[in-house]
């Protein structure tokens, strides 16, 4: 008899809640998330992820649960359910949650296959390149292909000699481009820079969210210095738009201080209405692995209009 059954019998007269034991079901799971608050002042409000004027924001705050359940000696079920939490903000009290990565699948010696909403493997290929991820200075401001799509199948292999392959597939009937689409990525090195000081990826996306593109990205960490670079050629599925994009990033760790800078440029007009150039600089203060305070400034230049934003923020990961 399982521990859960004992618990239910013991409290039968009071009603049994769904109490599940890690031991009984051989499951491992974790509740995680990020709470973030930011005070930002934005000039004209034409850039994505920021509104004109001075705003209090909760950029990409989220909560989720993820885990795996061992089915037998060969297979485990894996899952993730994650939502963005916007309830910090007065305007979002009616709809405080939006969908993020949410999927269910299997993993084993073959790797992992999941079905649901997930970052495309093209987006996944950026690794730790973006110094301003999930802010108004995010490289997605100008670089296309940073997509999280529903109704997809994602395969990720296990690492073999520091090499990993991953693949996203969207069936025709579930793809907004009205044709089957895919993204494929080959990685060499540790994406999180924990096991190797380098990371290199080659990636291609075809007919996902109105983009067909190829990119090469790399990150190298030498002691306190971290450098990153990306080149991408993009075009719309109908061929009406095309161009090249670049990202260069650098950061340097000085005890708890991390100054950083980033440059991004793209002329495909897939993300902005014209050729776009963005310069960003910032300073992080890392209290510990979970808590970071930051100051950033970003400047977006378009052919007919410019925008800039300065922000002071605090984020806590749990």
Automatic annotation (TrEMBL):
Please classify the protein's predominant subcellular localization into one broad category. membrane
Signal peptide region: 1-26
- Per the record, the coiled-coil ranges are none
* Keywords, alphabetical: Cell outer membrane, Ion transport, Membrane, Porin, Signal, Transmembrane, Transmembrane beta strand, Transport
Q: Which domain of life is it from?
A: Bacteria
InterPro entries for this protein = Gram-neg_bact_OMP (IPR050298), Gram_neg_porin_domain (IPR033900), Porin_dom_sf (IPR023614)
Subcellular location(s) per record? Cell outer membrane
The Porin domain is annotated at 17-301
Topology within the bilayer: Multi-pass membrane protein
Kindly give the PROSITE patterns that the UniProt entry links to this protein.
PROKAR_LIPOPROTEIN (PS51257)
Q: Name one Pfam family in it.
A: Porin_4
Subunit record text: Homotrimer.
What is the name attached to this protein's record? Porin
């Amino acid at each position: 008899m399982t521990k859960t059954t004992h618990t239910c019998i013991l409290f039968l007269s009071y009603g049994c809640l769904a109490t599940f034991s890690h031991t009984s079901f051989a499951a491992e799971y974790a509740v995680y998330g990020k709470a973030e608050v930011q005070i930002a002042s934005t000039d004209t409000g034409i850039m994505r992820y920021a509104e004109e004027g001075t705003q209090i924001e909760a950029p990409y705050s989220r909560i989720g649960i993820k885990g795996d359940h061992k089915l037998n000696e060969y297979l485990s079920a894996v899952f993730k359910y994650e939502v963005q939490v916007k309830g910090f903000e007065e305007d979002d009290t009616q709809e405080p949650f939006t969908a993020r990565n949410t999927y269910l699948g299997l993993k084993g010696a073959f790797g992992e296959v999941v079905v649901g909403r997930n970052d495309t493997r093209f987006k996944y290929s950026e690794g730790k390149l973006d110094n301003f991820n999930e802010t108004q200075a995010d490289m997605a401001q100008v670089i296309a292909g940073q997509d999280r799509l529903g109704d997809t199948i994602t395969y990720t292999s296990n690492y073999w000699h520091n090499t990993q392959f991953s693949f996203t597939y969207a069936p025709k009937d579930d793809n907004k481009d009205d044709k089957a689409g895919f993204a494929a990525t080959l990685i060499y090195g540790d994406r999180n820079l924990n096991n190797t000081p380098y990371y290199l990826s080659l990636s291609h996306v075809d007919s996902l969210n109105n983009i067909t593109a190829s990119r090469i990205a790399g990150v190298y960490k030498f002691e306190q210095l971290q450098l990153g670079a990306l080149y991408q050629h993009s075009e719309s599925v109908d061929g009406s738009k095309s161009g090249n994009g670049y990202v260069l990033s650098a950061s340097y760790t000085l005890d708890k201080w991390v100054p950083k800078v980033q440059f991004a440029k793209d002329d495909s007009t897939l993300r902005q209405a014209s050729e776009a150039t963005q310069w960003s600089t910032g300073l992080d203060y890392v209290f510990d692995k979970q808590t970071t305070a930051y100051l950033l400034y970003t400047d977006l230049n378009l052919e007919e209009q410019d925008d800039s934003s300065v922000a002071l923020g605090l984020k806590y990961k749990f």
